[in-house]
Automatic annotation (TrEMBL):
Residues 1-19 form the signal peptide. Keywords: Signal. This is DUF1735 domain-containing protein.
Length: 171
C-alpha cells in the first residue's frame, strides 16, 4: 500500500497541473454575426411620419451603425445621430433606434418642418441615403478599437467592400 500511495498522489497532482491553463482563450471570433451593409434611400414626408423602418436580423449583443450620405460634403458618410444647425437657430436631428429585428431612422419630431425652405428640404428631406452597417460587438483581441464615427476606418477594420452594397427604397 505504501508503494501505491505515491503513484496515486502523483496521478492526482498531474490531473490538476494538466487541467490548469494560463492561456487566455479570448481570441474567439464572433461567428454568428458577420459585417454587412445595406443602403436605404427615400424622402421623409408626413405620409411616413418623417421616418422609415428597415428589417434586420442580428444578435442583441451586436452593433448597428447608421450613416447618412452628405452630398454637400463630397458624399461623405456621417454617423447618426447627427444634428444640423440651420438658419435662425433651428436644429434638425437625424436619429436611429434599433432592436435585433429592425432599424428605425427618423427626424426628431420636435423640429418644426413647416419652417424648412425648399432648399433645406432638398438637402435634408428629399432622396436621403442611409447606410446601415451591421457589425459584431466583440472586437478581435490585440487590435485597436475602431472609431465608429470614421466610416472609412469601419469598412477597413471589418474588411467590408462598399462597392457592392445592396440598395432599397423606403418610399
Amino acid at each position: 500500500m505504501k508503494k501505491i500511495l505515491p503513484f496515486l498522489l502523483l496521478a492526482f497532482a498531474t490531473l490538476f497541473v494538466y487541467s490548469c491553463d494560463n492561456r487566455d482563450n479570448n481570441n474567439t471570433v464572433d461567428s454568428d454575426t458577420f459585417p454587412k451593409m445595406t443602403d436605404v434611400t427615400g424622402t421623409f414626408t408626413s405620409a411616413n411620419n418623417y421616418g422609415f423602418t428597415q428589417n434586420i436580423n442580428i444578435q442583441s449583443t451586436d452593433v448597428v451603425l447608421v450613416y447618412r450620405r452628405d452630398v454637400n460634403s463630397n458624399n461623405a458618410w456621417q454617423l447618426i445621430p447627427k444634428t444640423y444647425f440651420l438658419s435662425a437657430g433651428r436644429e434638425l436631428d437625424y436619429n436611429a433606434l434599433f432592436s435585433s429585428q429592425q432599424v428605425e431612422v427618423y427626424i426628431d419630431p420636435s423640429f418644426d418642418l413647416s419652417t424648412m425652405t425648399s432648399t433645406e428640404a432638398n438637402q435634408f428631406l428629399n432622396n436621403q441615403t442611409f447606410r446601415i452597417v451591421l457589425v459584431p460587438a466583440a472586437q478581435a483581441k490585440g487590435t485597436n478599437a475602431v472609431d465608429y464615427n470614421d466610416y472609412t476606418a469601419v469598412i477597413k477594420y471589418y474588411n467590408l467592400d462598399d462597392s457592392k452594397v445592396a440598395s432599397k427604397k423606403f418610399n
